[in-house]
C-alpha cells in the first residue's frame, strides 16, 4: 500500500472504546468514509483507547 494514498480521518464517539464491538466501529467509520473496511485495530494512546480503521474508499484511496 502506498503511504501517499493513506488519508487520516478522525472519527469520535462518546462511547467508551472497549464497549464498542468491531461491527459497531465499522458502522461508525463507514458513515464517515464510504468504502470497504480492510482492518480494525484497538490501540492505547496516552492512556486512551483508540480504534484504527483502514478503509479502501470508493475512489480507490485508502483512509485510516
Automatic annotation (TrEMBL):
- Tell me where on the tree of life, at the top rank, the source sits: Bacteria
Q: What is this protein called?
A: PepSY domain-containing protein
